[in-house]
Structures are given as structure tokens and as C-alpha cells.
Amino acid sequence: MNRLSAWVVCGLILFLTGGGLFGWWWWDLRWRPHDIDKDSAEITRLLEGAGWVSPGLTGPRLYLVGFRSCPDCVRFQTEEFPALHAVGVDTRVIMFARADTKETQHSSPSERATVAELWVNRSWKLLEDWEAVPPDAWQAPGISAADGDAARSAVIEAGRKLMVDLKPLLARNGIRLAYPTLIWWTQDGKMRGCACEKRETYRFIRMELGAEH
Q1: What is the pLDDT of residue 28?
Q2: What is the mean pLDDT of residues 84-112?
Q3: What angle do CA 83, 179, 183 make, to 5 degrees?
Q4: Rg of the Cα trace of the chain?
Q5: What is the pLDDT averaged over residues 38-45?
Q6: CATH assignment of 33-208, given 3.40.30.10, 3.30.70.120, 3.40.50.150, 3.20.20.70?
Q7: Do residues 109 and 65 touch, judged by C-beta distance below 8 A?
Q8: What percent of the chain stands above pLDDT 90?
């Protein structure tokens, strides 16, 4: 009987320990960002050379990579940018226009025109104006078309190539390229990133960039 009781106790301890570890992973660990310590110089070069736009703040850099109709990108920008801006975080948004497939059109002429304009002229106000209008209603007023313009079409292709180039580099750091993908530097200079599709990831970004609310 004593031996049986000991086995029961051991089994209960193992069950509780395993359950606790699983709970820790489920509620915390799986949402945490990753250190970027492999190919960090190349990733930095790609980001800095892209057509990002920002409000021009002087605090830590935070790159957001996404596309206009990405709902998780819109949610992060809407919910988190105000607090980040309040503490001086320079939110650098990199928009790209997804390539069409035979079955589906993933970007419109007005979206491609706007992405090209953002990359060329870096206007934060244009990004704000664009995001204030539903994607399907945006007509890109006063913006030169990208389609049929060799230089602006090349800018669109550069944005798509950026995604292709980033994907394996981020994967080497445990980050799956998704939208939005966020990359930033902590106060001690550590490069960090995540595929931040879920709200559960947001608290770590706020904490590391000093924007807790």
C-alpha cells in the first residue's frame, strides 16, 4: 500500500509539473519575441534600405512589415502606435503590395501606386490618409500610377523581394514571417522580433520599448 501511494504521489507531481509547464508555455512562452542574433547585420541592412515611413521620432526604432488590408497590421497600429509614439518610439512602417496569383488578385492598381509613392517619397501623412479610408474605397488621389511605369513597378518588385529575402533570415532566428512582422531594438541594444499577429504578443513589445499602459 505504501508503495502504491508513493507511485500515486509521484504521478500526481509529474502531472502537476507537466501541466504547469504547459500552462507557462501556453500563456507566456509561445508569445514571447525572439532575439535576432543570426544575420542581424543583413536584416538591418534590408530594413534600413527599404521604403519605410515614420513619424520622425527620435526614440528606439520599431519596424513594422505589412500590407494595407492586413487586419492584424491595422489592429496593432490602431491599438499600440499611440502609446509607442507617446514615449518616442520611431515606428517605421514598410508596406508592400502582394503579388497576384492566377486565381486571386491580391493588390489593386491604387494600392500599388500608393506603395510605390510611400517608398519613393516617405510621406507619413500619406500613410495616415490611406489608412483612414477602407482599402477598397481608396483611389490614390493625385498619386502617379505604378502600373506601366518602369521605375515605380521596379519599386513594387523591390518590396516583394524584401519579403523573399527576409523570410529565411528571420527563420534562422526562430521567427516565421507573417503580418505584421515587428523588429526592434531594446534599450541595451538587443535586436528583437516576432510575428506579432496576436494581441498576446503586444505586452512584450510595450514592456521592452518602455510603453507599458
Answers
A1: 47
A2: 94
A3: 55
A4: 21
A5: 98
A6: 3.40.30.10
A7: no
A8: 78
